[in-house]
C-alpha cells in the first residue's frame, strides 16, 4: 500500500482562495496569516481536514504549486498545515518543457513513483484540456478536483477526495 495514492496539491485558489469574501465554504470566517511577503486567507477547517487526510496510510502528499519551496517553508508555518515535509515539484525540474509545467512535472513524478491512483487538486484544471485528456486516459485511477478559485476547496470537494483516498487507519 506504500504508493497507493498520491495527492498533488496547489495553493492559490485551492488552500488559499483569490479575493475571498463573506464566510468560507465551511461556514466560518476566513482566517488571515502573513506568509512571507503577502497575506493569505484560508479556512481553518480545511487545514484541519487536510492534516487528517495526510495522515492516512498509503497516501503520499506532494506540493504542485507556483509557491514551490515556499509552500512547505512559509505557508505551512503560517497556516498550521502539516505539509512541511511533503515533496515539492518545481517548474525547472523534470518536465520543464513548453506545455503546462504542472502537467509535465506531475507526469514525471508519476513515472518515478508509480502510484496506483492520483488525486490532483488545482483550480486551473478546469481550463487545462491537455491535463483533462491525460486524466481521461488514466480513467478511474485519477481524480481531478478544480475548486472555485474564489472559495478554494469546499466540503463537497473534500468529500470526493476522501472517498477516493485510501481509507483512514482503523481505530484500535
How would you portray this structure in words?
The protein is an alpha/beta fold. Helix content is 31%, strand content 19%. The protein is built from 5 helices and 7 strands; from the N terminus they run βββαβαβαβαβα. The longest helix is centred in the middle third of the chain and has 13 residues, at 101-113. The chain is globular and about 40 Å long.
In short:
This protein has 172 residues and is of the alpha/beta class. The chain has helices spanning 44-54, 70-79, 101-113, 129-138, 155-164, and strands at residues 5-9, 31-35, 38-42, 59-64, 88-89, 117-121, 142-145.
Fold topology:
Elements: E1 5-9, E2 31-35, E3 38-42, H1 44-54, E4 59-64, H2 70-79, E5 88-89, H3 101-113, E6 117-121, H4 129-138, E7 142-145, H5 155-164
Parallel strand pairs: 1-4, 1-6, 4-5, 6-7
Antiparallel strand pairs: 2-3
Distance between the termini: 19 Å
Helix content: 25-40%
Mean pLDDT: 92
- Overall form: globular
What is the count of DSSP helices, taking H or I runs of 4+ residues? Answer: 5
Keywords:
alpha/beta; five-stranded parallel sheet; 5 helices; 7 strands
